Amino acid sequence: MQASQDNAYLCPIIAVYNQKGGVGKTTTVVNLAAEFGRKGCAVLVIDVDPQANASTHIGAIDPNLYEKNAIALFCDKKTRTDIAHLGALISQDVNDGFENVCYIPSTDQLDIVVTETLRIHSNRPLEELKARLTLLRDAFDVILIDCPPALSLLTGNAISAATHFMIPIDTSSDYSRTGWVNLMTYIKDKTPETNPDLVYLGALLTRHSESINVQKAIAQSFDELEMEMDLFPGVGKRLPVYIHTSTKVGEASVLREPIRKTARSNKVTKDYNDLADYLLETLSIQQSLKA
């Protein structure tokens, strides 16, 4: 576990969610992690999606083979107070292209075990992840959480633990807007007690093209929807960077590498580079490993 050089620095914890699956949530997490790492940040990815796609993409080992994974992160009482037990869950067995990145793997049993355990044994079941990540904020430059596409106890914990969040919106269809509305309403209901300082970074348009009229119209209608609902006034709205569509994204996931390694000059590679630069500046993210 790489400690930051500045002990006073507490890293941002960025959660990426949408209730709708297939909108580029995991793609965003893994490629942002790779870009942050390339720019000299010590990065921790926490995979709380039972599908474990981020774990499979980043990690060199099948996540279901790990004896220590995100189940212990939520359910082992020792990880709530002991940094050594937390550190034992963090894997550095990553694929090429994920330099300076480590992760806590998920497992297909995560939702079942965590839900059963926390509802019985926790007095504050929505804040177990928050307690653990508080211990890690001075050990990394940025923490990314890949969330499940469901309004579950896992999602509630991620919302409570994060300092910031973004929501990918796939403009190639109109379905992800419904997921946005449901999720934003859920967050607005849950955070006043568990995480009142949570900051909405904005919606991230994915598979988007300004040259396609239908997609442009969806983006514009989404802007109007955000203004109308105004659930997080004064912050967020649509992020100034959007992600293009490319077949290379799927190829990179098959090869288990960042899009930059698959296609260095691809538009999506530049998009994630620009998004990382925007977040580095906006959130004053430390680059403790930068040469």
Automatic annotation (TrEMBL):
InterPro entries xrefs: AAA_dom (IPR025669), DNA_Partitioning_ATPase (IPR050678), P-loop_NTPase (IPR027417)
Limits of the AAA domain: 13-198
The protein's name in its UniProt record: ParA family protein
